[in-house]
Specification:
The chain is α/β, with parallel strands linked by helices and about 600 residues long. The protein has 3 domains: about 210 residues, 3-Layer(aba) Sandwich (Rossmann fold), CATH 3.40.50; about 180 residues, Luciferase, Domain 3 (Luciferase, domain 3, Roll); about 130 residues, GMP Synthetase, Chain A, domain 3 (2-Layer Sandwich), CATH 3.30.300. The chain is about 40% helix and about 20% strand.
Length: about 600
């Protein structure tokens, strides 16, 4: 069986590992280890079932589900049948789901629950190409032959396999590396989502390149909690791990993540900046609430860790006194912190959005390495990543083997390599626009490359602000600086063609309520607290402190605190928690304009 397509790669590992653990899943209140053989059988019967339903090679199947083991079985089955998996975020609304199913020409939709089924049924009359809907949860047909349960399709697959024992192998053998494997619809920070066409070869290229720079094996274990439908998790947390035999434990939920970490004891975890920001906030809050002796020990240990960090980062021998101090700090503080993550973590990975350099330095001073990487849906996720043995904080690392990176005259990052997608589905004009004449993909991000080839992202090309004074300002750098504050959860900076910069802020509700209780404030809701003079003064002082770290033209002159968080439901953030700058700018236009109505001296 060939291994240059995803289905062949998966089923070769089913043969190779067979009775070894592939997945770990919480079932009936207990963790169960699922062997490769079971994963292969579940995926195989579903693939045969799809073929029994008439799914042809290259046909699209939309997959709308929360993370669960059957998501993976369905994905592997679709790929093995020669189909194309169209990944859909489970948080999307019915009209957004219908748009993706329609735009992708999906013949089949696979959904997780009756609630997700209702989203599809709400627009079923507008989806003439949709022939079947398959539901993971047991579903009674109720007289509709177009709706089937997952188990029913698998049973159809078993019958089909008995009559056509060689058909699946033939399908897998017919899949070329350049065959389409997935349509991944971009988050849509501007305009409707676009279907990025990702091939089998794109994903395997990245998986192979990652294997050359980050060594993993069957003794490693990851805890998966990011959405499978996002290219970052599907690429890095699924196919790359499976290719190297890494055991994948499925987190119960984001709320149970801390508990699952201690239960599963992962060696590597993929996350997004917001996760590490929350952990940072929780650690600092715990320290502040401890007694003076513990606070002093933590401060001393962190200082020792900061001194030791450059030596550890370059694997250099520490001076003897520092080595002794670090060993003591590790025993008193760092080891206890690592136990919160299960005690076996080799490293964390962060991507999908910018992270503050200070956050990464903080964790490393406590003995925990976070590797920052960079990539887009269109590059099948990572183009660059820091390595465990070669890392520079504040950068996203050097390019992966086989990936070429260069900067356009205006600083835009251009990418070329086997990871770059085929283009946007049914949109040749947009595809043409995102490639240069000589075949480089235009990322839309702006960056700098140092003498060692490490890339630093400075901002989104279209997000760069040009003040009325002609200064170019990268708002993400300022926003990351503000979010390091314990009081601020999110920040968005504005000031394009204006005399000065302003910011919209959301607050860390737990910290602000603790502050309110300490100050004896009577207001209880966040909406009331943001207008309290002492809260406003607290944030003003915090802004003033952060402004000291910025050049004068980048300082925040005015700000407004919102009475709530930015939310997915209100269309202000993407499913991967990136803020939608244009949506927020439009929604809060009056508030932003008001900060410019009076001249600022």
């Amino acid at each position: 069986m060939r291994e240059d397509n995803l289905a062949g790669m998966i089923f070769k590992r089913v043969q190779r590992f067979e009775n070894r653990t592939c997945l770990i899943n919480k079932e009936a209140g207990r963790w169960r280890e699922i062997p490769w053989a079971e994963v292969g059988e579940e995926a195989s019967t579903f693939a045969h079932g799809l073929m029994a339903l008439g799914l042809g090679k290259g046909d699209c199947v939309s997959l709308l589900s929360e993370n669960r083991k059957t998501w993976l079985y369905a994905d592997f089955g679709i790929l093995a049948a020669g189909g194309v998996t169209v990944t859909i975020y489970p948080s999307l609304l019915a009209d957004e789901v219908a748009y993706i199913i329609s735009n992708s020409d999906s013949r089949v939709a696979v959904v997780s629950t009756p609630e997700q089924l209702d989203k599809v049924l709400a627009h079923r009359n507008d989806l003439p190409k949709l022939e079947k809907i398959i539901v993971f949860d047991e579903y009674r047909q109720k007289g509709d032959p177009g709706i089937l349960s997952f188990s029913m399709v698998q049973e159809m697959g078993r019958v089909f396999r008995l009559k056509n024992p060689q058909e699946l192998d033939r399908r897998i053998e017919s899949i070329e590396p350049e065959s389409l494997s997935s349509l991944v619809y971009t988050s849509g920070t501007t305009g409707p989502p676009k279907g990025a066409m990702i091939t089998h070869g794109n994903i395997l290229f990245v998986a192979h390149s990652l294997q050359q720079v980050i060594s993993l094996n069957e003794r490693d274990r990851t805890l998966s909690f990011l959405p499978f439908c996002h290219v970052y998790e599907r690429m890095g947390g699924t196919f790359t791990c499976l290719r190297q035999g890494v055991v994948i434990a499925l987190a119960e939920s984001f709320d149970r993540l801390a508990i699952n970490m201690q239960e599963m004891k992962p060696t590597m975890v993929l996350g997004v900046p917001r996760v590490y920001e929350k952990v940072y906030g929780a650690v600092m809050k715990s320290v502040e609430e401890s007694n003076p002796v513990r606070r002093s020990i933590f401060a001393w240990a962190r200082e020792v860790g900061a001194q030791a960090s450059p030596y550890r980062l370059r694997d250099r021998k520490m001076p003897l006194p520092l080595r002794w101090q670090f060993a003591l700090a590790d025993r008193l503080v760092f080891e206890k912190l690592r136990q919160r993550f299960g005690g076996r973590i080799r490293f964390f990975v962060t991507a999908a959005a910018p992270i503050s350099k200070e956050i990464i330095e903080f964790f490393h001073s406590l003995g925990i390495l976070i590797l920052e990487g960079y990539g887009l849906t269109e590059t099948s996720a990572p183009t660059n990543v820091n390595r465990p043995d070669w890392t520079k904080f504040g950068t996203v690392g050097p390019p992966l083997p086989g990936v070429q990176i260069k900067l356009a005259p205006d600083g835009e990052i251009l990418v070329r390599g086997g990871n770059v997608f085929k283009g946007y589905y049914r949109d040749p004009e947009l595809t043409r626009q995102v490639f240069t004449a000589d075949g480089w993909f235009r990322t839309g991000d702006v960056g700098e490359i140092d003498s060692d080839g490490f890339l630093r992202i400075t901002d989104r090309k279209k997000d760069i602000l040009i003040t009325a004074g002609g200064k170019n300002v990268a708002p993400q750098n300022i926003e990351n600086l503000l979010k390091v504050s314990k009081w601020i959860s999110e920040a968005m900076v504005f000031g394009d063609r204006r005399k000065y910069l302003v910011a919209l802020l959301t607050l860390n509700e737990d910290e602000i309520k603790t502050f309110a209780r300490t100050e004896g404030l009577k207001s209880e809701s966040l909406g009331e607290l943001v207008n309290e003079p002492r809260v406003q003064e607290l944030i003003r002082k915090e802004i003033d402190e952060k402004n000291k770290e910025l050049p004068s033209f980048s300082t925040i002159k005015k700000f407004q605190v919102l009475p709530r968080q930015f939310t997915l439901e209100d269309g202000e953030v993407t499913p991967t928690l990136k803020l939608k700058r244009r949506v927020i700018a439009q929604k809060f236009k009056d508030m932003i304009d008001a900060m410019y109505e009076e001249a600022f001296d």
